[in-house]
Amino acid sequence: MIDLHTHTNFSDGTWSMKKMLEEAEKANIEVLAVTDHDTIKGQKELANMNYGDIYTGKLIPGTEFSVVHDGIYFHLLGYGFDYKKVEEWVTKECEERKLDVKEEFRLMCESCKKNNIKIGNLKYDKTMGWPVEVIFPEIKKHLENKKYFTDEEWNMERGYFERCVTNKKFPVYINVESIFPNAKDVADKIRKAGGKMFVAHLYRYHMDNKIEFLDKLREDGIIDGVEVCHSSFNEEQIDTLKKYCKKYNLLMSAGTDCHGDKKPDIKLGVGTGNMNVSKDLIYKWNPYL
Ligand SMILES: [Zn+2]
Ligand SMILES: [Zn+2]
Predict the structure, then answer these.
(1) What is the mean pLDDT of residues 156-185?
(2) Ligand 2 centroid to 137 CA: how many Å?
(3) 143 C-alpha vs ligand 2 centroid, how far in Å?
(4) How many domains are contained in the chain?
(5) Residue 45 placed within a domain
(6) What's the mean pLDDT in 157-171?
(7) Which of 2, 75, 130, 179 has the most CB atoms around it within 10 Å of its CB?
(8) Last residue of a domain, one of 135, 166, 197
(9) Phi and psi for 128 in degrees, rounded to 5?
């Protein structure tokens, strides 16, 4: 069983690296990738740690990058790269840059104004939460805004930010190119350091045609492969992505997106049910087996 998509407390997971490795050992994960958001701190810790006593499976170094391509925000998983070769660049372009929530807030307010969506004069600082946690309730306070949204959009509890940044037709679409790095740049840099790039959890994005987006990533040379299994996918989605990879000779990966105790229903290796993906899935590209 493999799990190539997990998070520790180097990003938004709750477990330490040591705890992650202990849990992976307990869960009999044969190949594990720890893929914290926009950082290589996990790789650094693993390099300085004698983890053989804790975890006996194989480890693939990895990072989940927040990137933008053609105005669409999404996540790219980079695997198997030499972190030392990109250390300075990741620190500057990914670790520091993604913290710019003030800019995100400004773009959201600007987009509301441009699209005639009424909001009050809002002041923002980080202690108030994520920008969406301030803006979306404000939009909903003004009932005259409802006409711009579908019922589903108006009533959504989650996914507002994703819609803002992945769907150009959303009434409050924002282009976050000024906040997150360009997908092609990230892919080129990580490949130069020996890595492979995979698009993460395709079905979580809110664009109308997801396969069209996948086509674009493939044609523009951004991905080597696709995360074909993720704990949020159903059987049909997994099947579609596997067929797509076979058709276009793309590599495949699989991961639960385990965040430790923050999302206790998503367990290492098995996700919310019995994901249990065999390492055969990655034999084509994995030098670590
Ligand atoms: Zn993600
Ligand atoms: Zn993730």
Answers:
(1) 90
(2) 26
(3) 35
(4) 2
(5) yes
(6) 88
(7) 2
(8) 166
(9) -85, -5
Domain range for 107 is 101-166
Please indicate, yes or no, whether residues 63 and 119 belong to a single structural domain of this protein.
no
Asked, for residue 233, whether it belongs to a domain, the answer is yes
Ligand that comes closest to the CA of residue 73:
1
Residue 172 domain-assigned?
A: no
- Is the same domain home to 243 and 153? no
For the CA of 258, the nearest ligand: 2
What's 18's domain CATH number?
3.20.20.140
Q: Write the pLDDT tens digit of every residue in 126-136.
A: 899 889 899 99
Instruction: Give domain status of residue 204, yes or no.
Output: yes
Q: Compute, in angstroms, the gap from residue 15 CA to the centroid of ligand 1.
A: 17
pLDDT computed for residue 157 by the predictor: 75
* Residue 251 alpha carbon to ligand 1 centre in Å: 18
Please tell me the predicted confidence (pLDDT) of residue 288. Answer: 65
Residue 239 and residue 115 in contact, taking contact as beta carbons nearer than 8 Å: no
**Which residues, listed in sequence order, are joined to residue 32 by a DSSP beta bridge?**
3, 59
Same domain, 277 and 205: yes
Model pTM above 0.85: yes
Interval between CA 201 and ligand 1 midpoint (Å): 7
DSSP string, 174-211: ---TTTS-BHHHHHHHHHHTT-EEEE--GGGS--S-HH
- Residue 68's pLDDT is what? 96
Ligand 2 centroid distance, CA of 215 (Å): 22
- Cα(77) to ligand 1 centroid in Å equals 8
Contact 77, 197 (CB under 8 A): yes
Of the candidates 221, 186, 177, the one whose C-alpha atom is nearest the C-alpha of residue 89 is 186
Least reliable range by pLDDT among 13-27, 111-125, 210-224, 226-240: 111-125
